[in-house]
Every structure is written in structure tokens, then in C-alpha cells.
Amino acid sequence: MDDQAPDSLIPYDEIVQEALRAVVGRVLGSVATGGGLPGEHHFYITFKTHAAGVDIPQRLIERFPDEMTIVLQNRFWDLTVDAERFSVGLSFNQVPSKLVIPYSAITGFHDPAVNFELRFQATEGPDEGPEPHDPAENDGSPAGAEDGSNVVSVDFKRKK
């Protein structure tokens, strides 16, 4: 008897990843239209700096050549959200910057106020973990994720 599951002709992993990234867009859209973050909510958003459609200043790409985490908490402005991406103004070392980030570039979304977390596969490159990077500078260092029932980790690996 064969214990291996047959390869699916339906890309379930891609469909689920896309749907969960839409959750990030919906949350950010709610913040953009609601005029700010409600209560104690704040977000750590990690993304691939070289992913297609990412538009960030060159100095940030040089500092974070693979992956970067930004914090949306107290000091951000001009948050705009559409179906494919969001843009936001943040300050890094007192230098204002506009970042444009497609949802497909996001590898992590965390709201520590309610211990909610989503993790995504990178849309490019081999199945490796993220390279180490410096902590976000715009609002402080990311808090460590705590174990809890609101943490959702999605990590699909295809058998080859």
C-alpha cells in the first residue's frame, strides 16, 4: 500500500496563501478608512525587499537586502490600500520614506495586541528560512511571538 498522497492538480497552497494575504489587505483597508488603528492594535509586517512590485528607497534595500519588518503603530501616514498592494509613509532615522508593498511580497503579519499572526511562504526562491535581518527601526524592535490560539502558520511544502 502506498502512503504517499497523490500530487494535486489544484494549487491549494497558492489559493490559501492568496486568501490569507487578502486578510492583511482587508485589515489594512479598515485602518485606512477608519482613520487609524483602533485601541492597542499595531502591526509588524515582514516582506521580501526584492519581490516584484516592492518600491522602497534604495538605502533601505541596501540595509535589508532580503527581508524587512516594518511597524505600523504610532508614526505612519498616508496609508493607502488597494486589491494588490498597500503604501505607507514611515520615517527611518528621521528620514521620511514612502513604501509600496504588494501583498504577494509579505511573509509575515503580526498584531501583538491580540496575539494574531500569519506567516506566508516567500513567493520566490528555494524553500529556506528567512535570512537574519536588523530589527525594524521605525517604531522599535518587534516583540517575540507568543504561543496562543490566534497564531496561524501556513507553510505548505510540495513533495517533489
From TrEMBL:
Annotated segments matching region Disordered: 121-160
Domain of life of the native organism: Bacteria
Cross-referenced Pfam families: SspB (PF04386)
Coiled-coil parts of chain: none
InterPro entries recorded: SspB, SspB-like_sf
UniProt-recorded name of the protein: Stringent starvation protein B
